[in-house]
Amino acid sequence: MKKIFVLDTNVLLQDPNAIYAFEDNEVIIPAIVLEEIDSKKRNADELGRNARQISRMLDGLRNQGKERLFEGIPLPSGGSLKVELNHRSFAKLQEVFMEATSDNRILAVALNYHLEEKDKPDPRPVVLVSKDLLVRIKADVLGINAQDYLTDRIVNMPDMYTGHITLHVHPALIDEFYTYRYLSVGSLNLAYPLHPHEFVILRDEMGTSKSALLKVNADGKKLEPLYLSNDPVWGIAARNAQQRMALELLLSDDIPLVTMTGKAGTGKTLLTLAAGLMKVEDDHKYKKLLIARPVVPMGKDIGYLPGEKEEKLRPWMQPIYDNLEFLFDTKKSGDIDKILAGLGSIQVEALTYIRGRSIPGQFIIIDEAQNLSKHEVKTIVSRVGEGSKIVLLGDPEQIDHPYLDASSNGLTYVVERFKDQTISGHITLERGERSHLAQLAADLL
């Protein structure tokens, strides 16, 4: 049975192509949604870009045939699109929600459609689609079916690629690895393929302490030992298996894209900064260490704070400076600024200032990458020039962006899209090392 889908503004601002995602059903855009989109179109951020894109798409549909938007325009999927000018009566809704807010006006359209369809001999289900949890709750109170927009989800979080697996095998297989220093992936008899640069922990199925840590090679056919020793990197030594895996990826020159996820306190930023400093200052593999993070919300101006750009950025970049102070073992406030000024090869920036650049020969760290949309992360990764390495860090469970979640953000997008590529590697850090209190806070709060 065909359905009627009423779209909230946030669905279109999150994914302008959402109008094509409902197969052969009828898609309704309330008139108030156009007003809200119009109010965003001058923004210099991702929402402004999406507002302009959906405006162009609607204008293109308006010009492609004889039908008019308020009458209904056929879509390639077999459904139709209508900008709704009727069904705006607030009378039924006013009994429950009195204020004529934008959300309530969208709810009114959905409610009036729902009541109208109920009186028909063959009623069509009416579904309100919104990224706003409270709008969906209000719809439920009114008896309207409401759904989140899930088409933009990349993967369900339990299925997200972690970059490592643990296998319990016969001890003879572990002995074979230590004898020959490699194993074929086929010898594991797995029902699923392993990804390039994926890590494998082998444990004795008999229950002894015998184990081995291996890495899948670039072609995905062989398991090899980790090439790098467990020596400290700029005074930072791996405290667990996942941190050692992370350093293996960070220090490998043949892996130009590394993604790393994990809860707060797992060591993502500290490990990456230590590896970057070693590659830039000690090995001279890269000309510069560029560290950037989104100024949340992404793309907004820093504001009218007093001072130069560096002074305005300092509050947003302070977590980076905290880690640099630890690595350089500074004693006094302001010492890190003198060190960075003296080195000249370390640059701390907001992402607002690196978009549009071409960045060759640099070790690039993008912190808090979970606050990037798919379009933003594409813009940033496509800026990477010849001879550069980029590392994307973040916790998909800690998102400040209003229209992103753990399954639809740019960091998750890169992890899933690049997991089969030979030039990339990923690791999920699981164990907190900041302090016992920090680990409990991450787990319990």
Helix-strand layout with pairing:
Elements: E1 4-7, H1 9-14, E2 26-30, H2 31-40, H3 46-63, E3 73-74, E4 80-84, H4 91-94, H5 102-118, E5 126-129, H6 133-141, E6 145-147, E7 164-169, H7 171-180, E8 183-184, E9 199-204, E10 211-216, E11 222-225, H8 241-250, E12 257-262, H9 268-282, E13 288-293, H10 309-328, H11 335-343, E14 346-350, E15 362-366, H12 374-381, E16 389-394, H13 410-418, E17 424-429, H14 436-444
Parallel strand pairs: 1-2, 1-5, 2-4, 5-6, 7-9, 12-16, 12-17, 13-14, 13-15, 15-16
Antiparallel strand pairs: 3-4, 8-11, 9-10, 10-11
Q: Could you characterize the architecture of this molecule?
A:
This protein is of the alpha/beta class. It has three domains: 4-147, Rossmann fold (3-Layer(aba) Sandwich); 153-225, no CATH class; 239-444, 3-Layer(aba) Sandwich (Rossmann fold). Helix content is 35%, strand content 18%. It contains 14 helices and 17 strands. The strands form three sheets. A six-stranded mixed β-sheet has the order 3-4-2-1-5-6. Helix 8 runs parallel beside helix 9 (268-282). The two termini are 43 Å apart. 39% of the residues are buried.
